[in-house]
């Protein structure tokens, strides 16, 4: 079997067994150019200008010579010859190479095009020249035009391709060009008058993805939504198939809306596999994320769906759908219709406040950096986050989300340093009030003010502001988590534990403070092993060494309790036990004495 060149998506050269052949990237680009254009060779001068530098021929030739030397050495090591170099040309070598573009042409069937063209040509390549940029853009536009023609011609004649193939092709085309009504009609069944011009591709779809991109103001383009593949949690095969088909139905239903842009399912699957999803959402300018989880429960299943606004990490809609094993197919259309309707309504309502997040692209980016840094309960990260929020406010002084983030940073510093510094709480309160004045529709300002009131021992005021935040956003996991903390400190740990468990259900990969609140609630209920289990799920356990020590002491393991006492003083040599107990916001005396008992047993003095 010959080697295989993959140009759609990641540029790779594979051997006969499907393993990657390590080869210089510029050489792979030359192979791509020759195979895509059906050329046997390219003049060296053209290659230098196209792939290296079209403005500085001397520098381009120098870079070309270096690459030729590396390629020749690599080919000797491989005992293979993919390219041949002469004084004037670069030609295809005697080694036969198959390409994923070989069967792509005007007469290619829709099924093949839909399968092959799920990703952009040379997706991750960053061209060094304008000529290469334009050529790649033309290749991508040509591929989309082939796919579009095959889809529309097949739909106008006898529809030979399956519904899944037509849907996949239409969704891929709408991802590239959301304004294509003819393609949309394939999904919706609404007949439209064909436009005389061929499909045009959005400029953004033609350019390579960069690591850092400017986030466009919200009103210039429709908001983008990604429907992530469902998490099935060991559900039955039939239920897993149901959930996947459901997402397809919801996606098709949403494509009827001109007010939003849908990420194609193939791209959504790739996004789901990314380790840093937040960076991926920002890079692809995604504003909304739909997550679904299917869980087996006895003879039936439960489907949980939630819509998240990325700008604030806020769940703006969530619902559970009980399913019976024999009713999956019957309930699919009904659930898909309800989810699509809820998404449309939720996004429409949320767009009223979205401009506050994306009024300034750089301010929004700084805010997102700060949000990411606040997920770590580390003093250095907290202060870095504060700087990011201040940078955002330098660009947009009344940016309410950044004001809320600033308030959060001061509170978290107060919490982590455990010095009872009232000045930090005072700063948090000021910025929370500023956030509310800047935009009273956002729940984050009320949340931060409620947290400050809690740690100022104003329990009723804290509950009032958190009630307000929850009313504004009843599925906002961060608000629910803060409300849980208030209930725990207000000596209602049983209610607090239920609420924090609900927050974790809404946000299955939560920040450490969720587990800290859950551990505090479990300790207050005398469930010490459960408290330690929550602590074990924290990425950074340093801030909860005091609670760990108290849990182990109450379980009678004094060796481990002493270990966490020592770790507490190693991190904070100035920790004052009595001063800390004086500022811990616990409402009832029995609750305070229970916490004090564990800490005293552990060895704090």
UniProtKB/TrEMBL annotation:
<protein>
    <recommendedName>
        <fullName>DNA-binding SARP family transcriptional activator</fullName>
    </recommendedName>
</protein>
<dbReference type="InterPro" id="IPR036388">
    <property type="entry name" value="WH-like_DNA-bd_sf"/>
</dbReference>
<dbReference type="InterPro" id="IPR011990">
    <property type="entry name" value="TPR-like_helical_dom_sf"/>
</dbReference>
């Amino acid at each position: 079997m010959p080697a295989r060149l993959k140009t759609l998506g990641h540029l790779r050269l594979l051997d006969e067994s499907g393993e990657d052949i390590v080869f210089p990237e510029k050489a792979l680009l030359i192979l791509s150019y020759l195979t895509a254009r059906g050329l046997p060779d390219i003049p060296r001068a053209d290659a230098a200008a196209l792939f290296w530098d079209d403005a500085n021929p001397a520098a381009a030739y120098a870079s070309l010579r270096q690459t030729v030397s590396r390629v020749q050495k690599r080919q000797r090591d491989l005992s293979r010859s993919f390219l041949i170099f002469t004084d004037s040309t670069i030609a295809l070598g005697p080694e036969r190479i198959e390409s994923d573009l070989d069967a792509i042409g005007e007469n290619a069937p829709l099924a093949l095009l839909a399968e092959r063209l799920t990703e952009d040509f040379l997706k991750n390549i960053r061209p060094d020249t304008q000529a290469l940029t334009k050529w790649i853009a033309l290749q991508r536009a040509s591929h989309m035009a082939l796919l579009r023609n095959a889809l529309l011609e097949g739909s106008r004649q006898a529809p030979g391709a399956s519904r899944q193939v037509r849907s996949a092709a239409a969704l891929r085309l709408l991802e590239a060009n959301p304004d294509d009504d003819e393609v949309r009609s394939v999904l919706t069944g609404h007949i439209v008058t064909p436009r005389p011009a061929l499909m045009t591709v959005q400029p953004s779809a033609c350019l390579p993805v960069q690591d850092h991109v400017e986030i466009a103001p919200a009103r210039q383009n429709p908001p983008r939504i990604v429907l992530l593949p469902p998490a099935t949690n060991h559900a039955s095969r039939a239920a897993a198939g149901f959930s996947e088909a459901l997402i397809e139905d919801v996606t098709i239903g949403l494509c009827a809306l001109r007010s939003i842009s849908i990420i194609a399912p193939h791209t959504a699957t790739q996004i789901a596999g990314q380790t840093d999803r937040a960076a991926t959402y920002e890079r692809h300018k995604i504003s909304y994320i739909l997550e679904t989880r299917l869980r087996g429960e006895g003879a039936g299943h439960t489907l949980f769906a939630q819509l998240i606004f990325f700008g604030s990490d806020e769940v703006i809609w969530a619902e559970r759908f009980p399913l019976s094993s024999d009713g999956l197919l019957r309930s699919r259309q009904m659930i898909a219709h309800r989810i699509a309707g809820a998404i449309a309504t939720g996004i429409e309502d949320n767009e009223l406040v979205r401009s506050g997040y994306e009024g300034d692209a750089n301010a929004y980016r700084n805010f997102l950096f700060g949000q990411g840094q606040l997920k770590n309960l580390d003093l250095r990260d907290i202060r870095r986050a504060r700087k990011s929020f201040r940078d955002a406010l330098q660009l947009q002084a009344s940016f309410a989300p950044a004001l809320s983030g600033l308030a959060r940073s001061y509170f978290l510093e107060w919490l982590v340093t455990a010095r009872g510094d009232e000045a930090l709480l005072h700063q948090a309160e000021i910025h929370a009030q500023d956030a509310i004045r800047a935009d009273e529709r956002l729940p984050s300002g009320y949340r931060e003010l409620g947290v400050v009131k809690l740690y100022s021992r104003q329990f009723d005021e804290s509950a009032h502001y958190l009630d307000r935040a929850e009313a504004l956003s009843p599925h906002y996991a961060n608000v629910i988590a803060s409300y849980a903390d208030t209930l725990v400190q207000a000596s209602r740990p049983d209610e607090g534990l239920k609420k924090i468990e609900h927050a974790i259900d809404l946000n299955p990969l939560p920040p450490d403070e969720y587990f800290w609140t859950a551990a505090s609630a479990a300790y207050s209920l005398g469930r010490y092993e459960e408290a330690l289990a929550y602590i074990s799920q924290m990425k950074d356990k340093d801030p909860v060494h005091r609670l760990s020590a108290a849990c182990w002491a109450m379980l009678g393991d004094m060796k481990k309790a002493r270990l966490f006492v020592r770790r507490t003083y190693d991190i904070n040599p100035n920790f004052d036990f009595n001063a800390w107990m004086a500022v811990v916001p616990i409402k009832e005396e029995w609750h305070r004495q229970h916490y004090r008992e564990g800490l005293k047993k552990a060895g704090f003095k």
